[in-house]
Amino acid sequence: MKKIVIIILVLMCSQAFGLTLMGPPMAELKQGQNGLGLNLSYSEMDIEERALGLTETLKDVESFSYLVNLGYGVNDNWDFFVRLGLTDIEYDDIDFDGNSKFAYGFGTKATFIQQDSVVWGGLFQILWLESDDDILGIDVEFDYYEIQIAFGPTYEVNGMSIYGGPFLHFIDGDIDYGILGITSDIEQESEFGGYIGLNAELPENANWCIECQLTGDAYAICTGISWKF
Known about the structure:
By secondary structure, the chain is mostly beta strands. Helices cover 5% and strands 72% of the residues. A hairpin with a 2-residue loop joins strand 11 and strand 12 (218-228).
């Protein structure tokens, strides 16, 4: 039985974690303007789990996130958005290819200072996920949320911009192992990181961006296309 429990712990801790697209740390919509975005993110990170009095680190958990972003400009310096989508997970150490249920979240961006071609601002976003699976006849359920907070400059020139800065990343949640009566706590290995990205204006009031995120125990490559209307 103990061996079965350990196997389940390894499987389920790899189910759904990952950094997702942040974009420029500034308000991107004018007052009353709407936004629609499609985001794709790939990340690889280490996850810390505490269960049965033990702490375990799962290395190189891969995540693929597919999210729809719906935004609204509260005013010229502040916008708000919601996110809906799915996250797929792979964990090569045990040849595991999982999937998640419905993912949802929200966030906000604000412009603080504008100096000629440089805009300083910040963002906050949070995403909730939950999933369940039947592993070796045991019903396993978990839920968690992740938070990303960033601050930094965006340099704009000729329809393009370079952006980035430091950010914080938090994961908090738990996993319930059904009839085994076991619940484990999960969190990120590293909280602090940095990111950099490129944003380009496209025809039809569209934008495309690509960015790289890096923490002490994780990295992500993200891209997205958005429209303003």
